[in-house]
Write a structure and sequence with these properties.
It is a single chain. This protein is an alpha/beta fold. The chain folds into two domains: about 110 residues, Rossmann fold, CATH 3.40.50; about 110 residues, Regulator of K+ conductance, C-terminal domain (Alpha-Beta Plaits), CATH 3.30.70.1450. The protein has six helices and twelve strands. The chain has a six-stranded parallel β-sheet with strand order 3-2-1-4-5-6, with helices on both faces. It is elongated. The two termini are about 25 Å apart. The relative contact order is 0.13. The C terminus is likely disordered.
């Protein structure tokens, strides 16, 4: 897979190296020529000193040939412009953008060419909620332009599915277990994988089936009632102002 990462701050550089280590062809674009000259990313990551907000720079980067463009600069305005150009001018199939300031999150949608918006403060909030929310469903990520969410449930001792397999859990259509974290290790789920109390279960769910997923995984009995609305990682995470660019 060919990936263009725009913004060579700590986030962008780590992302580029991580993707390259997984065997992807990665181009890291940084508009500061001095910073670009100092970069020595591992894994064969290529570096281009150019302003990703300029069409000519993206033409030089051959953005029309990439599969994914990731805008992770420290400025929301730049990330929005990069995303719009990537989608509209170069028809990049998948565009992912970093949201630096939570109050700007509403702008990061498909009208700006963005398929997925990632707000780091929101993810931090989700991690805090997850740490104290055994037996509750926490929304980690909302995919822009769709009603699909990434959610997490840490199974409590009282969960009706503890001790049953994924295939026998009764999860509805429109939901899929994508990973299980158990004792600090990632378990790739199969139909015969047995769920256990303490498992951190990551699922992709649609809005329509989220409530049913919560009832199945959270309730103390198979037909148990809802234990309240899912905790949204986006709620209460927009205390920062929208002015200025966050450090990358």
């Amino acid at each position: 897979m060919r990936v263009a990462v725009c913004g060579a701050g700590n986030v962008g550089t780590f992302l580029a190296e991580d993707l390259a280590a997984s065997g992807h062809d990665v181009l890291l674009i940084e508009k500061d020529p001095d910073l670009a000259a100092k970069l020595r990313p591992a894994g064969g990551v290529r570096v281009l000193a150019a302003d990703a907000c300029e069409v000519s720079s993206l033409q030089l980067a051959k953005l029309d040939e990439v599969d994914v463009c990731v805008a992770v600069t420290g400025g929301d305005e730049d990330n929005l412009v990069i995303s719009l150009l990537a989608k509209q001018e170069f028809a990049v199939p998948r565009v992912i953008a970093r949201v630096n300031h939570p109050k700007n999150h509403w702008l990061f949608n498909e009208s700006w060419g963005i398929d997925i918006a990632v707000a780091q403060p929101h993810l931090l909030s989700a991690l805090v909620e997850e740490a104290v929310s055994v037996g509750s469903l926490v929304r980690l990520l909302q995919f822009e332009g769709s009603n699909t969410r990434l959610v997490e449930v840490t199974l409590a001792e009282s969960s009706a599915v503890a001790g049953t397999t994924v295939g026998d859990s009764g999860l509805p259509r429109g939901s899929s277990v994508v990973a299980i974290v158990r004792d600090g290790r990632v378990v790739v789920p199969r139909g015969d994988t047995v769920l256990a109390a303490g498992d951190e279960v990551l699922l992709l769910v649609t809005a329509e089936c989220e409530g049913e997923v919560q009832r199945i995984l959270v309730a103390g009995d198979a037909g148990g009632g809802d234990r309240g609305a899912p905790q949204d990682a986006n709620a209460g995470a927009d205390g920062d102002g929208a002015g200025g660019a966050a450090e990358s």
